[in-house]
Design brief:
single chain, 234 residues, 21% strand, binds iron/sulfur cluster, alpha/beta, 33% helix, 2 domains
């Protein structure tokens, strides 16, 4: 075997080694991502559900990071940022440690992330699971309670500010009210409970909503103040 043949075989061996180590790295990466199934989490806390139809119920909140909208009245702007990465198993453990059988997945906008692994993880722990979404990102979920809270910021995306596939599956709709314009934004085709929540628990707005309830006489419209704010808790 001459020198040029040796160099040729060495190059082939080097090439094969490179392919071998690259594939090992790839397998490791895929394995890690499958195991982690990471979610971006903003915060976890235990409180009562202060809003909506299930107001007053003890709950554990999973606030996921990031949102696809930028509402002017948003009181959770800190959730717009990138969150802490956690896999669903460790998330389930931390949520389980609160010892509350009811978990509310909220945001930010939770439907930016695939919620099925997390919902299944919480179900295996015997928990009931709720989602609060702005309704702009459709996901077919196995959740036990679904709250859709349409925002006028999404009117460019959908005629009623939300993906209408939610119309038949949402357990309740929640609208933040600050003026008459917000009342005309409410989708009157909704048959499930419609919660009218005064922005910032404003009592003047609450009075205005009462007048609207008198005027409209819709049997599925309800005024609800934010209970946790009244109680001064998170
Ligand atoms: S959809 Fe909710 S979280 Fe997102 S910006 Fe609007 S109020 Fe904030």
């Amino acid at each position: 075997m001459n020198d040029s043949n040796n160099a040729y075989y060495l190059r082939i061996i080097a090439c094969l080694c490179q392919i071998y180590f690259s594939s090992l790295f790839l397998v490791e990466e895929i394995g890690a991502s499958l195991y982690n199934r990471g979610m971006e989490v903003c915060e976890l806390f235990r409180s009562i559900q202060g809003e909506g139809w299930r107001q007053g119920r003890l709950a554990c909140f999973i606030r996921l990071a990031r949102c696809n909208l930028r509402c002017s009245f948003c009181d959770t702007q800190y959730a717009w940022e990138k969150g802490k990465e956690m896999n669903v198993e460790e998330l389930g453990e931390e949520v389980g440690a609160f010892r509350v059988p009811y978990a509310v997945i909220t945001g930010g906008e939770p439907m930016l992330q695939d919620l099925t692994p997390l919902i299944r993880q919480l179900h295996t722990r015997g928990m009931e699971v709720a989602i609060e979404t702005n309704g702009t990102l459709w996901q077919d979920s196995e959740v036990d309670w679904l709250t859709v809270s349409p925002k006028q910021e999404a009117l460019e995306l959908f005629p009623h500010g939300y993906d209408e596939r939610f119309l038949s599956v949402a357990n309740e709709f929640k609208y933040i009210i600050s003026s008459k314009k917000d009342i005309s934004f409410i989708d009157t085709r909704i048959s499930s409970p419609v919660i009218l929540q005064p922005v910032n628990n404003d009592l003047v707005v609450a009075g205005f909503i009462l007048a609207i309830l008198e005027e409209e006489r819709r049997k599925n419209w309800f005024l609800r103040m934010r209970l946790h704010t009244l109680l001064g808790i998170q």
